[in-house]
Amino acid sequence: MTKTRGVLGLVGICLLIVVLSALGLASDFMTRLGLDLDGLLLILCSLLMGLLFLIALVMIAREQGWIPQRHKKEAASAAPAAKPASPRAAPVKSQTEEAVTVRPGEGK
Description:
By secondary structure, the protein is mostly helical. Helices cover 59% and strands 0% of the residues. It has a domain of 51 residues.
């Protein structure tokens, strides 16, 4: 019971910050701060706080099972196993080839 209560408290805090960030963005455009320095700072701070707490909210929802997770391991085991390709061998150089060196001033 207390664990659920703690999780709901975290969800409430995250939702509150996301809503306040959305209100900050709306107030930026309603007060016509626009793209001056104050407006840009308000937009960036609102977006940063909103996105950080939205990510935290999504992670909490996944941990609690409210958002279903994809299980890649189950999908991979259900599919037939493909035979791994053998690595290609590097071409073998013939021993008749000589090493070519180029020095400054030599050559054409």
